[in-house]
Prior knowledge:
Radius of gyration: 21 Å
Oligomer: single chain
CATH topology of the largest domain: Aspartate Aminotransferase, domain 2
Bound molecules: pyridoxal-5'-phosphate
Number of domains: 2
Largest sheet: 7 strands, mixed
CATH architecture of the largest domain: 3-Layer(aba) Sandwich
Helix content: 25-40%
Mean pLDDT: 96
Shape: globular
Number of strands: 16
Order of helices and strands: EEEHHHEHEHEHEEEHEHEEHHHEEHEEH
Distance between the termini: 30 Å
Amino acid sequence: MADNRSPIWHPFTQHGLGEPIPKIEQARGALLHCANGNTLIDGISSWWVITHGHCEPRIVTAIQEQAALLDQVILAGYTHGPAEQVAQGLIRLTGKELRSPDPLAHVFFSDSGSTAVEVGLKMALGYWHNIGQPRHRIIVMEHSYHGDTIGAMSVGERGVFNQAYTPLLFDVVKIPFPVAGAEQETLDALEAACGDPDTPAAFIVEPLILGAGGMLTYDAALLRTMAEICGIHDVLLIADEVMTGWGRTGTAFACTQAGITPDILCMAKGLTGGAVPLAATLSRSRIFDAHVSQDRAKMFFHSSSFTANPIACAAAAANIAIWESEDVPARIAAISAHMAERLDALSDHPTLENPRHVGAIAAIDLKVPQGAGYLSDVAPALRAFFLDEGLLLRPLGNTIYAMPPYCISHEQMDRIFDAIGTAADQYAR
Ligand SMILES: *Cc1c(COP(=O)(O)O)cnc(C)c1O
């Protein structure tokens, strides 16, 4: 365990509970090796970032070689090989996946999912501003999560997470989550929001599955219809693929399954295979073109110090090469099939409900009596139970989910699902 006098202020951690804080020394594949000799199965890909597995040899080599060649350089008015390689690779890959006559054509780099979202929102507002039709309102979906910076929180679900900051958050237009059977309500709300005479600038949405909001899934056909509604009203569609990107839903991008191309696509987490931070916001030509002018006041006013860091780009280029040379979706399909089987077996469990899965993500809810939710008392208890079982799992309230790296074995997955069954016996009340 880490020294409890450590000055580290941990994210999303209530230090007052005194929960154990395991110290991780090494990681390989789907395993984390702790300083105390324990080994954990990384059931959540180290918070949804690791895709192929920890320390994937080709990504490690790419990082090592790049670090010795060019560590960091300014991207404002300069360029470098790894950034060019990644930008071209992203345009090639999204073009092949999404097959649109008006494809994603430009890549803006940043360094986290939150910044990729901020950039996407600024691109959308900048577009309307620069073409002389200013629009400021953003449509969002209930239960969404888009990051923890002020702008990203503004377009995300409001709750205990951002209560202290609400005076700073901007107003948005919220449509309901498409609960199975009540999808039409969502479509009607989107139609009404898009049709408002004060036309919104954009609709931002997590395609196919809302992650931090509780692993809530909806159909690809519905995503397609929502994209069509935005298209009819010329409201820009921003797809937040920060979690869903790089295979989580079974295809490289979730938008593939709906056969849509968003106007703006945000990616981060798995872009480098999860090894180092890097994010990208892709846009269609018209958004970039609206920022091209002899007028310097129309340039895109955004940068972060490490924009397109060469080491991170080298890792992303290696990741893209893996996607282009191997059948990664086949690997995910095998995981998905095994998950479906194990989840099906748990669906009869008297204290579990709402089993759902998409690609390599499986989720199920533990029945809890009092108002379930993120702060449900059961979450820390479950976390501790899973840690004892040698598993890194971090339930969202009473929602237990697995989102492993694509190298996980069936035996390792079985240990996760066996433990979920045991937890359901012990922790439901
Ligand atoms: C994680 C996440 C983000 C934020 O990404 P960070 O890299 O943590 O800033 C944004 N959107 C979605 C859908 C996410 O899952």
